[in-house]
Amino acid sequence: MDHSGHGMTTDLPPFTLERGLAWSADPFFLVACLLGLGLYGWGVVRLVRRGDKWPVGRTVAFAIGVLSIGAVMCTRLNDYGMVMFSVHMAQHMVISMVAPILVLLGAPVTLALRALPPAGRGRKGPRELLLMLLHSRYMRVITHPGFTIPMFIASLYALYFTPLFDFLMGSRTGHVTMMVHFFAVGMVFFWPIMGVDPGPHRPSHLMRILELFAGMPFHAFFGIAVMMATEPLVETFREPPASLGLDALADQSAAGGIAWAFSEVPSVLVLIALLFQWYASDQRQARRTDRAADRDGDKDLEAYNAYLASLNARGT
């Protein structure tokens, strides 16, 4: 049968990476990726033309993040993902954990705030609307760990262990909606943790690390549960096309292994990024303290020395 308009999936040849990476674009994600790259590029060019600098590393991270979405949604991986649990899980993990981390490292909100021109007194343009959204109650709710962590966990268990998954996989619209949801959940989960862009929640670096590891054990357990299951968990992948030469349970076990691995590797990468941010923040604070001391002649140290001298005088 034809799954959700992605192309005929009943006669797919056995999966290889070369076949999986062949071009087969999903129109929605193709347009979204091109639009994202175009708008980001416009922002960088605008800053450069007016003499401002924008870190090359941020541009590279954002571009790789968007291209990672294109790699799983605009290739035949998207066709194989409709009939192979393992390929679908790889899509899920990339679009919910790898792509959001890289996109957030690109600081797109910061770039937009710097590149968009002010609308003028008494008017509201794109920049003003973005600022209103950042300071809205809605944004405070969806980026609060009390929302992001349960949503991150529920996106696994409530989807794969209920009939909702089969319902969404029954149409192209449902499949696209599912993947957009995965990306959105990854963005709101990692946004406060990465702390690159401005947002309503700015937890300390220690709290960010705790938030990161709050959801990971549930993610790892999900992967193990899928890997160890002795029956197919979802109807969509119960009977893969004969042309694949695939055992459904073996493929499901591979899917669980992919989910388990992605609870570890991205977490380590984010932890390394957080530790570097923490170190850089401490260095900036130390430089600010040194500059303040140079400006005021280190009055705090002089006052403390005077205090010690007064204590010494009282003791004599």
Relevant terms:
mainly alpha, globular, 316 residues, disordered N terminus
How would you explain this protein's 3D organization?
- This protein is an all-alpha fold and 316 residues long.
- 71% of the residues lie in helices and 0% in strands.
- The protein contains 15 helices and no strands.
- It has helices spanning 17-20, 27-49, 56-73, 77-80, 85-105, 108-115, 126-134, 137-142, 145-160, 164-168, 172-194, 205-228, 248-261, 265-296, 299-315.
- Helix 3 packs antiparallel against helix 5 (85-105), helix 5 runs parallel beside helix 13 and helix 12 packs antiparallel against helix 13 (248-261).
- It is globular, with a radius of gyration of 25 Å.
- The termini are far apart.
Count of DSSP helices? 15
**Average pLDDT score:** 86
Number of strands: 0
Euclidean distance between termini CA atoms: 97 Å
Strand content: under 5%
Largest sheet: none
- Estimated radius of gyration: 25 Å
As residue ranges, the low-confidence spans are 1-7
String of helices and strands: HHHHHHHHHHHHHHH
What best-fitting shape do the alpha-carbon axes yield? globular
**Secondary structural class:** mainly alpha
User: Could you estimate the helical fraction of the residues in percent?
Assistant: over 70%
